[in-house]
Amino acid sequence: MQLSENIRHLIESSPKGDPDQQGRIGSGGYTAEDDTVFQDVMIGLSLQKNILLKGPTGSGKTKLAESVSYTFKQPMYSINCSVDLDAEAMLGFKTIEQMDGQTAITFVEGPVIQAMKKGHILYIDEINMAKPETLPILNGVLDYRRTITNPFTNEVIKAADGFKVVAAINEGYIGTVPLNEALKNRFIVVDVPYIKGETLKSVLIEQSSLKDEVIIDQFVQLSADLFTQVQNGQVSEEAASIRALLDTCDLSIYMPPKRAIQRGIIDKLEDDREKSAVKNIAETIFE
């Protein structure tokens, strides 16, 4: 991903957190036709803004977050939201340990606390899958205060320099709820579009094990046709997921492409009409 000199300077001058703390740094690799998507995310984070990535499933939101971690050279701590998400999953939990022959209650820090204390990156995936009453605990973390009072220990934690927040959202999916305005206003929103054409081809070559360019070109055409069907409301965004397409490419090394599409894409769908639509497209491309 190409970055201008002034953006690189902004990134390099941004605080990086505690270099002595070990954590997982993302692998990078996000690719998009529009370079401004990645650039705008990096600018916003360098200016200490929270970033909300909005886009369809499989459009590369998590890969973008990984690339943020890679570019900043900062570890990323993740929260995977669901209806079961609670304060313990975000902040941590108390446990009983044996220390020097004595029983002691200790607190195991969760991803929010770790990222704040170390000045690293917090990634909140599918934030609109969480119950609305769960997320207000993060309000102070996400605004200018950058603080939280841990309800389990009463410790007041202020984020260290370098702390950054990236969240991702899939709108309109079953189980999701609209973000309330107070929460959404704490973010800069960046739309993450589908990857298409030559950009998609380069992603499939780089990130899948499939190297046959003829078959890769056919998968690129499959993706384009599925995207058209998504726009027309004929199939769900899940059918056009780039993540599913990468899985399908890997499978096609060891089985015929149409069978790989069946396993990697079609069988994930619930609606019989969607399954038939994808199957028909696949049969026109892979004879």
Could you explain the architecture of this structure?
It comes from Jeotgalibacillus salarius. This protein starts with a helix and ends with a helix. It is an alpha/beta fold. Strand 3 and strand 4 form a beta hairpin. The longest helix has 19 residues, at 213-231. A five-stranded parallel β-sheet has the order 2-5-8-1-9. Strands 3-4 form a two-stranded antiparallel ribbon. The protein is globular and about 65 Å long. It has two domains: 5-191, P-loop containing nucleotide triphosphate hydrolases (Rossmann fold), CATH 3.40.50; 197-285. The chain has helices spanning 5-13, 35-46, 61-72, 87-91, 111-118, 139-142, 181-184, 197-207, 213-231, 242-251, 257-264, 272-285, and strands at 50-54, 76-80, 92-99, 102-109, 121-125, 147-149, 156-158, 164-169, 187-191.
In what range is the share of β-strand residues? 15-25%
Which fold does the CATH topology of the largest domain refer to?
Rossmann fold
> What is the top-level CATH class of the largest domain?
Alpha Beta
**Strand numbers in spatial order across the main sheet:** 2-5-8-1-9
**Domains, number:** 2
**Secondary-structure arrangement, i.e. CATH architecture of the largest domain:** 3-Layer(aba) Sandwich
Domain AAA+ ATPase: 47-193
Family: Belongs to the CbbQ/NirQ/NorQ/GpvN family.
Protein name: MoxR family ATPase
Organism: Jeotgalibacillus salarius
